[in-house]
Design goal:
By secondary structure, the chain is an alpha+beta fold. It is built from 5 helices and 18 strands. The radius of gyration is 18 Å and the shape is globular.
């Protein structure tokens, strides 16, 4: 009986990811590519927004992380203020008082530390097993989370932002924590790195036309996109993908639109 149930789920998932349905496009005015995939299969509604950045484009752009110590801002505000061409919401934050609740470093300076167990908005360490690392040359990578003193001592990074969980590492699926955060359907935000591209992925949810995904489904999706490494960011009402040329590309789930957040991943033209 269990085998049949797993087989049915597997066949359903293959049907889901093999049918792209309606694809909406936006001109990002360059080598960057955007597409929005709307899928309707077996009573499962999905809207997935993806921006693909060829690694060769990094001769003209660099990665950065927008943040503000005093004020929470929307993803689009971070993007506009930095002169970015695209922006995506970042890692977990204190919804009540603002500020990151995960380790964040800029230019070898510790800006925020990860919250400890018992503190408000603490995130389980099993979730925070990865970090987005932006080197001083503007290139981006996904690394395992390390103790804070490791990142503080290392002098190679422009930014370090802890997030998670890691979905794919070196082309292999990572075992996911067994929590409702992982298994429930939510809007999701994800960074994916393939052999030739960096992909920004946002899955809509909590809407009548978008159910959201458990992380296991997102994991399968990024594997299908040939991601060598992929990591989950903050999701839910925070999930936002923005471009300078087209504005907000997904449908944020909060009733009043974009949520104010602590940080955002930015792609900025070189001058």
């Amino acid at each position: 009986m269990h085998v049949n149930r797993y087989l049915i789920f597997f066949l359903f998932f293959i049907l889901l990811i093999s049918c792209e349905g309606k694809v909406e496009k936006c001109d990002l005015q360059g080598v960057l590519e955007y597409r929005k995939i709307v899928k309707t299969e077996s009573n499962d509604e999905q809207q997935i927004s993806i921006i693909s950045i060829p690694k060769t484009a990094l001769k003209d752009y660099y990665w950065s992380i927008g943040h503000d110590l005093l004020n929470s801002k929307t993803t689009s505000e971070f993007g506009k203020e930095a002169g970015a061409v695209v922006a995506m919401n970042g890692s977990y934050f204190d919804v009540d008082n603002g500020g990151s609740v995960t380790y964040f470093e800029e230019e070898d300076r510790r800006i925020f530390g990860s919250r400890k167990k018992g503190q408000p908005w603490y995130i389980n360490e099993a979730i925070l097993n990865g970090a987005i690392v932006i080197k001083k040359d503007g290139n981006i990578s996904i690394k395992k989370n390390r103790k804070e003193k490791f990142f503080i001592k290392s002098k190679n990074e422009q930014f370090v932002l802890v997030a998670g969980p890691i979905l794919v590492e070196n082309g292999k699926r990572k075992k996911l924590p067994q929590t409702s955060f992982v298994s429930d359907r939510h809007p999701r935000t994800c960074l994916c790195i393939t052999k030739d591209e960096v992909k920004l992925v946002v899955v809509d949810g909590r809407r009548s036309d978008a159910d959201g995904m458990p992380l296991s489904t997102l994991q399968e999706l990024v594997k299908k996109m040939k991601c060598r490494d992929a990591i989950n960011f903050d999701g839910g009402g925070s999930s936002t993908l923005w471009s300078k040329s087209c504005g907000i590309l997904n449908n944020p789930s909060d009733w009043n639109g974009e949520r104010k957040i602590a940080n955002a991943l930015l792609l900025i033209p070189k001058k």
